[in-house]
Each structure stands twice: as C-alpha cells, then as structure tokens.
Please model this.
Amino acid sequence: MSNTAFADNVANNLFDDVSGADAGAGDIEYRCFYVRNGHATLPWLAPKIWLSTLTTSADTEFDIGLATEGVSAAAAAIANEGTAPAGVTFSRPTTKGAGLDSTLGLAFAHAGWMYPFFGAMLGWLGVALTGSDTSSNVLFGGLQRVSAEQLGLSPVLMAAANSSGGVMGKMIDAQSIVVASTATQWYGHEGEILRYVFFHSLALAALMGVLIMAQAYVYPFTMLVVR
Model:
C-alpha cells in the first residue's frame, strides 16, 4: 500500500500496463485504495465507486471488492501485489447505472418523519402506473431503501410499505380496469369505473400509510417490524 493521494487521471497512476505475456499467464494484481471524505462536517450519503470504462482488452478485466475492516479503519496489508487480501469477495461490474434511485431516495428523505406515509403512497403510485406490484417494487425498491437508511427507519418496513401500498393501487391501473369492463361487458365505460374506484383506492392507500407510520414510531406497533 502507498500513502500517495490520487488527484488526477494520469494513466498508470494505479496499475501498470499489462503485457501480453502477463495476460497470457493469468497475472492478477491487487491494489487497495481509500476513498476519503475531505469535508469537515458533512458526511457522505450513499457513496458509490464509478468506472467510466472497463479495460479495452478482451484478456483483462477489473474486479472490485470491499475491504472487511469497515469505515475509517486501515485495511490489512498483503505480502505483495499478487496476494489476494483475506476475506474480500471480488466481482466484475457488469452494469452502468445513473444513480437515480439514490438521488430520488435522498430527495424523498427530506420528507422527514412523514416519510413512512409517503413511502406507502409511492408504492400505490408505482402499481397505478405499471399495473404490477412486482414492477412497483423493482421501480421504487432502491429508493425506499436509501430513504429509510437516511432517516434511520427499517428498510424492511419501507420495502413492505411499498408492496402493501401498491396493492391499493391495483384497482385503478389500466389493465385491471380493462379486465373489469370486459368481464362485466360494460364496454366503453372504463372512465366511469376509474372514477368510481379512485377514491376508494386513494383512501385505502392513505390508511396503509397511517399503519406504516404507526409501525415506524408507535409502540407496540413497532414490535411488528422485522429488524
């Protein structure tokens, strides 16, 4: 390990070039680096490591692992650059995300103590838009986790809120309304069906939001949350 701070993107400032002979021999080299928050008072919120591009060679790859020593601790030294650090699991990045879940999650965290209520309403909105509770969970699951962690809430509770609130939106999604009009042979009245059930759907989602608020803050409802 080195105590050199990297402040630029100069080539080979972390790894040297991999020769064809090295690649052919299956050479593996390890580097440990620390990501430092230089601000005096503000903590990092959901930090991420980004690789703008992977290696252009088909014979080489980057793998990333998180040291097990934890935040603000020194990583264990290794004998040489070819020795794998103990206890670290490495994986190759395969996707490039935009960080939208984290960005929205941090934004919704500004709702403060009212967030459990809005978390249920997000699930309701997700199902109303997508027609599927599963799709709503995929759409907003990461957001719910980030917001919950920022506010000290249970991520499990907010994931459940997303799913439970979503159930209340099922009656107003387009697919359900079309199925209802077809099953009852009330063709062309989809707008009326939506108008009839919209208030019930919204009211039930709001009641679910109140229940989630109670499970987040009010004893003995808090005992129902899996920790």
